[in-house]
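Continuing the batch. This is chain 6 of the set; chains 1 through 5 are on the previous pages. Same settings as before, nothing changed between runs. Recording input and output for traceability.
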Amino acid sequence: MHQVGAFEPFEAKKLLELFEAEGIPFEIESDYSALASPSRYLQLSLGMYPEGSKLLVFVPESSLAKAEALLRDRFPV
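Output for chain 6:
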């Protein structure tokens, strides 16, 4: 399995719906490491929007090219 990205939950929901519609198998893992950041409390106190938890999305190598093409369409750089 290859990681195609780390996404905010609302971004991941739309992306995973797209993967399902296209028949791309995927796995998800949660990453809560940003919530343990020592500067998070300070950022919240100063009214800044600190980074939150992410969902790591993985696809099999056989679907990697198709998944990356969909990612480029959904999230153009």
